[in-house]
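pinning this so it doesn't scroll away 📌
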Amino acid sequence: MKHERAMLRRQFLKGTLGAASLVALTGCDNLTQSSWFPSILNKTEQLTERVQRALTPTNALAKEYRDADISKVFPANGNTDPGTEDYAGHLAKNFSEWAVEIGGLVQAPMSWSLAALKELPSRAQITRHDCVEGWSAIGKWTGVPLGDLMRQVQPLPNAKFAVFHCADVDDEGVAYYESMALADCYHPQTILAYELNGYPLDVPHGAPLRLRFERQLGYKHAKYVRMIELVETLAGIGDGRGGYWEDQGYEWYAGI
């Protein structure tokens, strides 16, 4: 697992360096350990985010497709099973006791069971999933718009980010998490999905709930979501970079 993460990080940095024409490709890992190089990447990422947000309307939709366009195979990558006793217990009960909580900087913290979420107005969307590893697939996702839940919990004025805490952990026991700007929670295509192609999510694809964040790359689409925490800053969560993969060197803003 550690070797795989290091390999993916090197591949990511190679692409970043090539695009920016900063340095030769050799020695990327040494650069990531330097005191100055991460700050350059961070500034470049912030500039990319500002430019893209300036050019793209806030509610611009990712392209949606027809039923005929749905891929015959939708790969499951990353963690494909949390592998914990707690998760196995929920799976054995068909997730009847699974709940997702939204808390942190909100006026009215709330929790919903999976059954309660399925009773709320849903959205179905056929979109393309673009993976940082280079593959794409089209699938039909059904779930509850995250903005609807946010309107119920009423974020406080100082809430700036939503952090998604998940049920899966890596081989070293590090919990998976992801985050997005609070404003992106209200995008029409940002949903907590519980179905793929008309069927309940299976374990490899993130059962029972996964984030669909259609205008960003696939590693932002957190699986096995248990809790959403609204915060003012990402500092102090994980390594402070906004997500499990971001802590390995991936960009926080992965807009496409």
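📌 and the second one:
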Amino acid sequence: MADTTVKYEKTKGLTDKPLSYCPGCTHGIIHKLVAEALVDLDVLDKAIAIASVGCSVFSYEFFNCDAQQAPHGRACAEATGIKRVLPDNIVFTYQGDGDLASIGIAETIHAANRGENITVIFVNNAIYGMTGGQMAPTSLPGQKTTTSQDGRDTAWTGNPIKISEMFATIESVAYLERVSVHDPKNYLKAKKAIKKAFQYQKEKRGFSMIEIVSTCPVNWGMKPVDAMNWLKEEMIPVFPLGVFKDKGADNE
């Protein structure tokens, strides 16, 4: 007799809309982890997503909750307004490094400094993905992009901005962790961190951000497996994983 036991079921936190990401892109994995965390905490019906501009611009079609599209870089400003009007809802932004670390850096810093009770999901793939693979504020020294074809020259453009390290200096930040999704072990760590950030928002602890080191195989000019290896071998030494701030742990 055939085994009819359900082995795996797609999370109710995602819609049935096919993802629009390139093959090997880890946005899909991150979407799944965010959606599962919302379901696990039983807050999906209260969640409001803020979609940024970038590869994740259509994330409002993928998360099975209310959502709002923000102008480029303004996700945290929109999240602030929505959270203040609807303080009992779970409000989160989903932003790439071009959106957050470049044009949106002011909105994000000031939301953190005010201690807004929102959660930021920050996807760092060290490049501008949607617009053709230009150098981003997070691009690595020597990294080749369409606008740094000989490699990023730090004498001209400075070093990559380390967002987690920077935001750890802001007093009002409640929880800040950098994770990765390059293997199953790290998937589980990433989900735990995302779930904790949402839990802190439920408990009204203040601003939380999870930085997720991610891949962009197409714009890196790599096959998906090679991109995962490059993330592990090249990106993580520059953007080390770990907890950078946890006020909850300090007070428990």
